[in-house]
Amino acid sequence: MTTEQSPDRRRFLGNAAALAAGITIAPGVTLYGVAQAKPLDQPVTNTVRWGMLIDANRCADGCTDCVTACNTENGLNGHGRPETDAQWIRKVNLRDPKTGAKKSLPVLCMHCAEPPCVDVCPTGASFKRDDGIVLVDKHTCIGCRYCMLACPYKARSFIHETLTDQVPHTPRGKGTVESCTFCVHRVDDDRSPACVEACSKTTGALTFGDMNNPNSKISKALAEYPTSRIRADLGTEPGVRYRGL
Question: What's the whole-model pTM score?
């Protein structure tokens, strides 16, 4: 018998079989089963590179449809403490000091090609799937929060409270770290993330797709318009790009 961790174990969100019930791994920490998203005979491969394009010119000031959709989809119920409540996607306001021009846009996990959160994780709980989606394995996360310190985008949250009314496709647990998953359960079911679906009904500022596929909508948009990455100087190669910044 070997004690080496299987690669399949580290991408449990993407292709793990459904668990029958919640599992208590420590006092106050209960993880709930994940519905099987991708069949075991369809492994995640690097032929796909999932990414998101955010058009700041189309993102409406004051619109929080993407935030609401994310919270609803993943069961992120606030506790009235903005400084500690989970926030996988948030709206920020930018102002050009020279012109005074203002823009409002969402910020989330950048799903970096070279994610700092993965580099500093001592247990391997933070990992990147072959298709570019960065996740946290809640079964091995020890809550050290090194990844939160390493993330230059402030995209990760720590769960301080005991959780109730969780949704089956999004395992969460007190004492662990979490962040945007690109709604991996939807992606593996050939659907768009909840934020993108919600935005498509209003401004259409968010585009999601395979950046390795030249025929995808996102690839065509990236080829046609100039885009930028937040803190591109860090060399993390974010999978989230912005137009109009």
Answer: 0.81
